[in-house]
Amino acid sequence: MSGTVSLVGTEDPRPWGRAGKRVLIVYAHQEPKSMNGSLKDAAVTELSIQGCQVTVSDLYAMNFEPRATKKDFAGPLNNSDFFNYGVEAHSAYKKGFLSSDVIEEQKKVQEADLIIFQFPLYWFSVPAIMKGWMDRVLCQGFAFDFPECFDRGFLQNKLALISFTTGGDAELYSKTGLSGDIKYVLWPLQHGVLHFCGFKVLAPQVTFAPEYSSEDKRKEMVESWARRLETIWKEKPINCTPSWYFE
Ligand SMILES: Cc1cc2nc3c(=O)[nH]c(=O)nc-3n(C[C@H](O)[C@H](O)[C@H](O)COP(=O)(O)OP(=O)(O)OC[C@H]3O[C@@H](n4cnc5c(N)ncnc54)[C@H](O)[C@@H]3O)c2cc1C
Ligand SMILES: [Zn+2]
Asked: Where the protein is mainly located, per its record (predicted)?
């Protein structure tokens, strides 16, 4: 061992990184060789180099169940005459009888300092499988309660970042473009879901129109995401209020 300098457990391999930080990547793409697959892989590589512990929930590969149904409850329902998913989920969470796949995802969320959502934009939103992850995993009692929502949400000590690709280009998603500012699309996801659960939201990573870009440009898109992640732990969350989106 003499003469060997060990960094393990003492110093970040990169001074700007954060060894020991835990990151969960919730990833929705069917094709590993896709742009989304490359962006996910770039994040795993960069964050691992920093010494972060990275977990990936690869939703299609897991065959993740997106439907919010009675099957989510392993014990008796509160009201078997009239089914209310939200009420039953809240109660099952408290009693510890949510289905095991949901409990597993909740554990990953609980352990994470940062959650990255990586997906292609589907109808101005997340793909159904990721929406199902949100519907089932971020249940009342776990992610929020009343009045413990928004800044008081239970996940308030965590960061969240939405990283996605689009079909349309930046021009289409400008304020004067046909689709309007891309920020309008982010309001329901960043504010309605993430901020509601307490997350501090980092600026989104938008990769516009990879299918209509050159190979070189696409490589640059992946590299710029990896470069951003080098200093991700220094970033300040956005001010997630209506003015960030609509002014
Ligand atoms: C149901 C549905 C709804 C949709 N709704 C919308 C919508 O509302 N708004 C909108 O804008 N779009 C929408 N789209 C389009 C969709 O968002 C895009 O098709 C998607 O974001 C493209 O990303 P991808 O990862 O699938 O691209 P891919 O087709 O996988 O990637 C593009 C190219 O990049 C290449 N590539 C992969 N990795 C690398 C790398 N490391 N370096 C260089 N090249 C690489 C791939 O080989 C491929 O040729 C929708 C699509 C569907 C199916
Ligand atoms: Zn907000």
From this structure: cytoplasm
- Tell me the CA–centroid distance for residue 190 and ligand 2, in Å: 6
pLDDT at residue number 10 = 45
Structure tokens at 50: 């920093």
For residue 38, give the ligand nearest its CA: 1
Range 149-166 average pLDDT: 98
Span 24-78, pLDDT tens digits: 999 999 999 999 999 999 999 999 999 999 999 999 999 999 999 999 999 899 9
Which residue from 31, 35, 206 has its CB within 8 A of the most atoms of ligand 1, so it is best to mutate? 35
What tokens appear for 147 in the block?
Answer: 């009045």
Give the architecture-level CATH label for domain 2-246. Answer: 3-Layer(aba) Sandwich (3.40)
Tokens 């972060």 locate to 52
Report residues near ion ligand 2: CB below 5 Å.
191, 195, 240
Closest-CA residue, ligand 1 atom 46, reads: 34
The secondary structure element, H or E, covering residue 226 is: helix 215-230
pLDDT tens per residue, range 80-131: 999 999 999 999 999 999 999 999 999 999 999 999 999 999 999 999 999 9
CA dist 17 and 231 (Å) reads 7
* Predicted local confidence at residue 237, as pLDDT: 98
- Cα gap 210→237, rounded to integer Å: 26
What is the reported pLDDT for 8?
45
Between the CA of 222 and the centroid of ligand 1 the distance, in Å, is: 13
Q: Which pLDDT does position 17 carry in this prediction?
A: 55
